[in-house]
User: Fold this.
Amino acid sequence: MKKDITIVGAGLVGSLCALYMIRRGYKVTIFERRKDLRSEIITAGKSINLALSERGWTALKKVGIDKEVKKIAIPMYKRIMHDKEGNLSEQPYGNEGEAIYSVSRAQLNVLMMEMAEKNGAKLYFNEKCVDANLEEAIATFNNTKTDTEQEISADLLIGADGSLSAVREQMVKKHHHEYEYNEIEHDYKELLIPSVDNGTHLLDKNALHIWPRGNFMLIALANLDGSFTCTLFAPKKGRNSFEGLNSKQEVENYFTSIFPDFISLVPDLYQQWNANPTSGLGIVKTYPWHIKDTSILIGDAAHATVPFYGQGMNAGFEDCRILDKLLDKNEDNFETCFDEYSKSRKLNGDGVQDLSMHNFIVMRDKTADAKFLLQKEIEKKFSNLYPDKWTPLYSMVSFTNTPYAEAWEIGMKQEKLMQSIMTTPNIEKIWESDEIMQKMYSLV
Ligand SMILES: Cc1cc2nc3c(=O)[nH]c(=O)nc-3n(C[C@H](O)[C@H](O)[C@H](O)COP(=O)(O)OP(=O)(O)OC[C@H]3O[C@@H](n4cnc5c(N)ncnc54)[C@H](O)[C@@H]3O)c2cc1C
Assistant:
């Protein structure tokens, strides 16, 4: 008989996980707290957008939905930096043709829920998980429309219910799993650059735009309808913070003095400022990620991170692919598989969190630093000369499936080596020379 799987959460990772489990021959039922937003979201057109990169694509490809997703994705080949005078400079993300992709989170979620349903998953909406017996794979759901409760029993319960996971809460409460939440000092707010009348983008749509300003920044990613979703990441308090940005004058002064070329693109800035919430950001750490052979966590529920490497969803998609691989390896023996999944993925959950915090500094500060940009040029040249000796950290994370923990470790070693190369006298002039390339070769 087919084993029954209950997935809590029809988000990006829950929907992809459903596709993987159906492919393995399991019967999958998904319970989602929100209402079925599918038709509404499609017509709304505007929403948070995410950067989808190689490991995300690898996981989508394995279940055959990468081509469908590509139809709603916009390639971004480079970063474009906007300085305080409105001057632009750019930095390619990788070699020619290499790109990360801007995708609307809502549109992608709709597509993936539809794929999961089409392939045989049953989806129930307005069902909020409020309790669980994790050793028996029984979850209790409260129907938010009728306020009635039901218990759902299965062979396996998968918590794909995001950073505030109810499944994780039960693991911590009843099984004393480790848990830590660390909120960072920065909040974020979304703003929209509208398209011009005919749906044309006001900025280069094939780039991720950054306004780096030291310890804070603004970014913009293109949408298919010609608009850009922008996010301001700024401190909660103190200089250049959200604090004190209340009146129209205060908000407009802030943007005019700090992001002058941005404010001219957003005529209704103050309306948007008031309408859109300011939200916090944080890192979730928990361990283990499973109970026996009956319950596991996946995606943000296990390892929510800050969004600065654009890897949260990619990491969750990778969880699905690795879980599937481990099920193959362990011939669907859940207990041995989950034990290995917990141990190996936890290291990479920590890895993606370290990388994300590191990239916040790179994006908000280093992308405006000529020496850093030169360092990246040198790394790129060396990597093209000796591809088996060096893959730049950004490429390792975004254009390969190298485990995050490994990428982080290699990246830190590279950084140390580059610090010594960058102290070479006259490096600005001689960086392309054989001498520098050979020096790097000898140090690697
Ligand atoms: C500003 C911002 C920018 C980001 N940018 C990127 C990016 O560029 N690239 C990237 O890879 N990642 C990015 N991320 C991270 C990414 O959004 C998440 O990692 C991803 O959405 C995680 O997917 P998930 O399915 O695990 O969780 P979620 O997307 O949170 O989905 C969880 C689902 O579970 C449901 N749920 C929650 N609780 C319950 C319950 N009790 N009962 C039933 N259902 C429940 C929720 O309604 C939701 O549908 C960004 C995040 C933020 C905040």
User: Anything to note?
Assistant: Confidence is low (pLDDT under 50) at residues 42-46.
